[in-house]
Amino acid sequence: MSHDNPLPRRSFLETVAVAAAALAGSAATARSERLLALAPSGPDDPEIPNEAVAKIYRERFGGRPITRAHVQLDMPAVAEDGRIVPVIIESDLPMTAERYVKGIHLIVDHNPDAHLAGFYLTPAIGQVSITTRIKMKRTTWVRAIVETNTGELWADYAKVLVTLNARLRVPDRIAKGDVITVNSIVSHPMDTGFFRTRDGAPIPAYFISEVVVTYGGDEVARFEWTSGISRDPVVSFSLKADHEAPLSMTWKDNKGAVYSKSVDIAFTAA
């Protein structure tokens, strides 16, 4: 992709986007012609993924073309904690009385409220530069769509891989043969599927369905969960530490995502 007069990147995003080149994105799913035909788009623009985003496009943009230029959306390629994801939106469009950016629409395709934020501006702003942090439930496209007072629509897009923020803790001092307590917590919405967004759209069920615990490569416990488990699930359990080896937990959700965390079981000197 290319931009007219690219804008400089901000350094704090670089510290978040770790190992992005090694991670492959998931394959795109086929979309209906009804969703694809909402607005003219370029060959590299993300498709309209669902009816919630389609409704936003219809109600806010109509059939106006949206061009990928004059906007820069900076986000980490990998967000290790979906509860705090940094966002920078900048534009080189003028902010004069005759022509100015009157609105910025931040859309997160698979969030419960896809139209996550609107920023409405006047020429007094002088320059378009917005920095904030958002919450993201899952890996998805993020869209920054800029609207001018003359009706033009400009955009930039970012695909962000959201990983689970998990913690796995064991005691600092362990002797061989001790029965220790293992504590774990993982960030996950654990949506039941029974609720709706403020616009009335259903929020699909999205929860961790299975947890597997291995010790030295051998499975020692398995938990089967439903959406009845509270969000950001916490679980503690006992383990007999009879050898030094990695202890791992793997969380699997009902959408097929798999996340793992490990800690070493090591004995302290007498």
Question: Based on CA inertia axes, which overall geometry fits?
Answer: elongated
Please summarize the sheet with the most strands.
5 strands, mixed
CATH top level label of the largest domain? Mainly Beta
Rg over CA atoms, rounded to whole Å, is 23 Å
Low-confidence stretches: 1-8, 14-39
Mean pLDDT rating: 84
Order of helices and strands: HHHEEEEEEEEEEEEEEE
> What structural class do helix, strand and pairing data support?
mainly beta
Please name the fourth-level CATH homologous superfamily of the largest domain.
SoxY domain
What's the number of helices? 3
Beta fraction: 35-45%
What proportion of the residues is helical, as a percent range?
Answer: under 10%
* Tally of discrete structural domains: 2
Distance between the termini: 61 Å
- The neighbouring-strand order within the major sheet is 2-8-7-4-5
